[in-house]
Give the backbone structure.
Amino acid sequence: MKVIIDSAENIAAMAAQQYVNLLKRKPNAILGGATGSTPLGLYAELVRLNKAGEISFKDASSFNLDEYVGLDGSHDQSYRYFMDHNLFDHIDIDKSRTRVPSGIDTSDPAAYDKEIAAAGGVDLQLLGIGNNGHIGFNEPGTPFGSLTHIVELTESTREANKRFFASIDEVPTHAVTMGVKTVMQARSIILMAIGPAKAPIMKAMLQGPVTENVPASVLQLHPDVTVYMDYEAAKLL
Ligand code: GLP
C-alpha cells in the first residue's frame, strides 16, 4: 500500500494524475466511482483537466459504489444525482456507460457484480471512508466475501449523512452497496481521506489489524492501493 500525505489540494491533483495516466494507457478503462465530500476536489480537477484537453473519458465506463434504497436518480440526495452534477455532466463520458446501483429495483443486487465482470472488471476504484471505517456502505461487521447487497445503515452513518437532508427522518435506512469482495476485485484502488474527523479511523485502517470490524482495513491485503490523505487525516499516524 502506498500512502501519500499532503494538502487536500495536492492530493486531489495527484489522484487526478492517476486517472490521466490510466486513461492514456487504457482509454476504455472502467472507473469505480464514489460519493461524499471527499472526492469533490478530485472531481473538480478531473473536470478541469477534461476541459483543458488533458484527459478524455469518451471511451471510459464507470460503476459507482452505492446508492440509497428508495431514492431515484432525480432525488437531489441520490448518488446518481451527485455523480451527474459533480462529474458526469461536466466531462465527455457517455452517460449511458455510467452505472450507479438502482435504489429502486433492489430485487437482485448481486446482478451488479455480474455486470461489472461482463464489462471486464473495474480498473481503478475510488473510495472514501466513513468515520467507522465503512467503504461504500459496507458497515463494520460486513463479511469480506460480500458481493453487492442491501445494507441497513448504522445510526452513526445516518447521523453523519443527515447534514444533506432536511432531517434525520429523511435519511434512508437502507442502501445498496458493492460488497467488500466487489471492491477488492478492482485492479487498482485509490482511497482518499480529508479532515481531522477521519484521523482515528485512518490510524485503525492503516496501523491496526485487518478485521471485518474496520472494513477499510481489508485494503491492507490488496496488491495495488494508493491512500491519499491530507495532514489532518494523517495526524494520528
Ligand atoms: C458515505 C458514502 C461513502 C463515503 C462516506 C464518507 O456514507 N457511502 O462512500 O466514503 O460517506 O463521506 P465523506 O467523504 O463526505 O466524509
